[in-house]
């Protein structure tokens, strides 16, 4: 009898999680109920599954509203009814027009209007809902009851949740809680009671009860969760799909392996059989088609993820990972026992991804393609800010609530109420958004399953997330973007333009395991390179002396939080450096994980141990894999596998101690480990970027700068370019583009880096120059470019008119004279005649003024290094390149701060710092919590450091004992304003990052056995 139930998917309205709603229905003796969330079907598929498990008949529908104004309820009689409602709502979402007061002609939808605003004439499928509190109005009613039904909306469960509902409504309408009107909120009666109690209210109107039951009986929405929903065939049948895929695979096999490669042929044939049996030929071919289009446009892509386990993907050019070389098994990606569908993760440059997306939507049709949705949940900080706002707290208190843990917040009654209701909202969906990369390509119109929304990006999204998509039979295509590909692609183009050299960077054999690149790798000389440039990764590369592809593949995975948190990263480093100082603590680890010294590094390793040590069946191994990759949502299923693991270990005679230790290692991977193919894909891309850095360093750094960097700020990549031999020039009106440009070894910074200069103006400068030639003078520039005086001064201060031969001071005087001669009502200077040549005085200018102009306008100096600006001439007792020779010794160094990372420990916050010394060499520091209290960081700049050198497996760090920031020379531009002379240096930046992870275990806490254990011990 419940035809209008809201879950918390009625965003900022409903308060009941879906599982709780169904649990409440069971306790209330409900035999049938409808989920009708407001303008969405987000929860219907989970709802159907859960209802059937408890023998409740699920009805599905939509509560149609315009804003908060109720229009009508639609209930789907069947799948066609859902499609009708979806298309209706999609049309209004796309056109951004209000829903009509009267529902359209639906064939398979039951419509229920409110008693207060029902049309005078009702269609066959239309009814009027009578709420329990409205039954009294029927007394003496002379009309017919044949169109009336029971309408008991459900929105919350308790008085407390009713208050939560009001808070949600206040958040949604952005008003104070006290300002909510009756029309903004539900009535307090929208709760679920027992069916018996509900029907008692309507006992005098049996016709209404009968009508309601008739609707329930007429609605029979059936959904097939088992059949694939993706576009079935690339051609027109499964037979022709597998024939085409076979042809392409054999062509690609010859391209990748040459003729007569027996192992490759056997693998190709095995995979083709599985792909055909599981009917995934179309999925492979559609992916191949997207890649083919990408190649035709000259775009670079990276195929990664578990799809790289497939030799078919390798032969089709989807991935660049040879699964034979790395012993990757296809079953990790696709196997006959695996119910969940596969997916490919494919990266493009952030500049080219939208072109790929447009191709997919145009090629496969906007009716059949959409992005996955995602639910953005209320998060800790946003909860307290949002809830506190509707309680009327001022901004200062809101900031305090958002930034501090609850124990440090105030304890007044309002704050307690904010905390109480805020905690109730944790993990509630707050708003719908677009999945960052997941695309669905459907066989049927996608509105058969969901309404669509059109976000500002311009690509439609479905109203459910990737988990639901997978559950109902969709395999998503992950179309991603990353700046690392832009670095590689733009470098190749720059090298061709600057040096006339064409590099086929797609041929990974030229970069992977290249000797000079391996030397850079082992030294951690990888700044700018995809995935391997962070301080932590560079430190790991040095600790491992990583000089080959396979070690880099392992390093790409052990740096992940799951591996590091379990202690496996530290243990891997030890075993890599001391391969003769440990024993495999069980023969299975030697047999299955010999390549990684018995350390679980990849998701596949966990599966191997679960199967070969624990004796679990393959299906349970897959549950473990999905759980640790964050895709498994059933805690009950995971607990069962855990119980089965220990029971199976016991049957095989393993000791409890050994089994507990191994499962501890397995659990630590949860959500953070890579599959081996994913790590290998990252390693290949890392090698591609490293190869370019080694042989074409200036072009590479310009590409990194133009793709807006990576881990570090622009200044660091400019430093790298300078160390590679580049000469750095400030923006110039005759040489610079919007982005940074390269002429031989001369790097001209782009106008995009000039703070305060509008992008449109920068583009206009370049466009005019390209059209009519170089600017001959300041007057010529002002005649040709519409510019204001302040923007002109920015260009003068940065030296953009230095080719005129005039000093900055002379140019500033000339600019003022030019603007004074312009009409007073003219905001922009558009002179059409040459201007009188003025005799300009020669004004003295300090050599440091340019550097301080640069700090102000670019954020860093280019005319001088930061060391040149110091008052002190001291440059340190020890240079970074000699630190290895000072193990356990105290040294004094002078260095410029590049970045610091905040890390929690049991003793408080500590930092890891990255610095560059006077010679331009990087080194790292460690700052413990007690030391930071006395010697804290004081922003960007140069510091005098005193510390003890600690060498950890070839990698030196300086543990700081004392630290002091050193002052620059006074800013000569403020010689008459002493209080401003040291303000500019405060604009010097640093890169600051933090992590909320638990502290990594120390060596004694890891306690990983380095000897045989349990029943394998001798």
UniProtKB/TrEMBL annotation:
<keyword id="KW-0235">DNA replication</keyword>
<dbReference type="InterPro" id="IPR029460">
    <property type="entry name" value="DNAPol_HHH"/>
</dbReference>
<dbReference type="GO" id="GO:0003887">
    <property type="term" value="F:DNA-directed DNA polymerase activity"/>
</dbReference>
<keyword id="KW-0808">Transferase</keyword>
<dbReference type="Pfam" id="PF14579">
    <property type="entry name" value="HHH_6"/>
</dbReference>
<dbReference type="Pfam" id="PF17657">
    <property type="entry name" value="DNA_pol3_finger"/>
</dbReference>
<keyword id="KW-0239">DNA-directed DNA polymerase</keyword>
<dbReference type="InterPro" id="IPR040982">
    <property type="entry name" value="DNA_pol3_finger"/>
</dbReference>
<dbReference type="Pfam" id="PF02811">
    <property type="entry name" value="PHP"/>
</dbReference>
<dbReference type="Pfam" id="PF07733">
    <property type="entry name" value="DNA_pol3_alpha"/>
</dbReference>
<dbReference type="InterPro" id="IPR011708">
    <property type="entry name" value="DNA_pol3_alpha_NTPase_dom"/>
</dbReference>
<dbReference type="InterPro" id="IPR004805">
    <property type="entry name" value="DnaE2/DnaE/PolC"/>
</dbReference>
<dbReference type="GO" id="GO:0006260">
    <property type="term" value="P:DNA replication"/>
</dbReference>
<feature type="region of interest" description="Disordered">
    <location>
        <begin position="986"/>
        <end position="1018"/>
    </location>
</feature>
<dbReference type="InterPro" id="IPR016195">
    <property type="entry name" value="Pol/histidinol_Pase-like"/>
</dbReference>
<feature type="compositionally biased region" description="Basic and acidic residues">
    <location>
        <begin position="999"/>
        <end position="1018"/>
    </location>
</feature>
<dbReference type="InterPro" id="IPR003141">
    <property type="entry name" value="Pol/His_phosphatase_N"/>
</dbReference>
<keyword id="KW-0548">Nucleotidyltransferase</keyword>
<dbReference type="InterPro" id="IPR004013">
    <property type="entry name" value="PHP_dom"/>
</dbReference>
<protein>
    <recommendedName>
        <fullName>DNA polymerase III subunit alpha</fullName>
        <ecNumber>2.7.7.7</ecNumber>
    </recommendedName>
</protein>
<dbReference type="GO" id="GO:0008408">
    <property type="term" value="F:3'-5' exonuclease activity"/>
</dbReference>
<feature type="domain" description="Polymerase/histidinol phosphatase N-terminal">
    <location>
        <begin position="1"/>
        <end position="68"/>
    </location>
</feature>
